[in-house]
Design brief:
254 residues, alpha/beta, 9-stranded mixed beta sheet
Length: 254
């Protein structure tokens, strides 16, 4: 349930004169935690809806310079603060602040609790007709998107995972990956350990449309696509991501 909906517009695409329509949303997770997020509507007939999930000690600000490219490409975007996160990118994590009992915790159980926040985001997107719904994770949430996709094969039409399994054990994640039925894109930093983890996870995915990017220059998680954070490597990530999204294609409205 959305307890508050504030619609406004603001200029975000530097130098392009474009305006993104932003809705400030609050979604009730099934365990009662209020999940804070922003929904951006693509102009015209959207190609799909992308759910953006951040990494550890982070928040939706991780995607501030990534979202405009996705919206400009024709995607609705929902980006949230998860309860497993914190202050970063010059902003607070409002979901983590509200879920005070989760503060100052760590470990696999702590991160797994954030799956309820991903479920809430999916519930929000599923009430809208635009398909496919694409789950995009970063760090620990790159592992959680496999659990989400395995549990909802009828709703998740694509998975993008950046530096999955860097924060907790992956036995359950590998089991979930084996049940995923949608196209999968996985990447990492160029670190050999991250590349190896990504390959093992992708190998667990059934045969189909699956892609691994092994970048020449990169960072852990989704910040690899931030041009100011990865000036010499972001373009390589964007080329691969856009090609993957194009391979999914638009699905009929539900």
């Amino acid at each position: 349930m959305i307890s508050r909906l504030l619609v406004f517009a603001f200029a975000l695409l530097a130098g392009a004169g474009d305006v993104l329509a932003q809705q400030d949303v609050q979604i009730q997770a099934r365990d009662g935690v209020t999940v804070h997020g922003d929904f951006f509507a693509a102009p015209g007939d959207p190609r799909g809806t992308i759910l953006l999930f951040h990494q550890a000690r982070s928040n939706r600000g991780e995607y501030a310079t990534i979202t405009p490219d996705l919206v400009k490409s024709g995607y609705n975007v929902l980006v949230i603060d998860q309860r497993a996160g914190g202050a970063a990118w010059s902003r607070l994590n409002l979901t983590a602040q509200g879920a005070a009992q989760e503060a100052n915790q760590s470990g696999e159980t702590y991160y797994l609790k954030a799956l309820a926040d991903l479920e809430a985001a999916l519930d929000y997107a599923a009430k809208r007709p635009t398909r496919p719904i694409i789950a995009w994770g970063s760090g620990y949430s790159a592992s959680l998107v496999f659990l989400l996709a395995a549990a909802h094969p009828d709703l998740i039409g694509g998975v993008l995972a950046f530096s999955a399994a860097e924060n907790f054990a992956t036995t359950s994640v590998h089991n979930a990956a084996a049940k995923v039925k949608c196209p999968v894109f996985i990447s990492s930093a160029p670190d050999p350990g991250e590349v190896s983890d990504a390959k093992k996870l992708l190998d667990a995915v059934p045969e189909g449309t699956k892609t691994q990017l092994i970048p020449q220059r990169g960072l852990s998680g989704s910040p690899a696509l931030r041009r100011e954070a990865n000036p010499r490597g972001a373009a390589e990530y964007w080329t691969a991501v856009n090609a993957f999204l194009a391979s999914i294609g638009k699905k009929p409205a539900a």
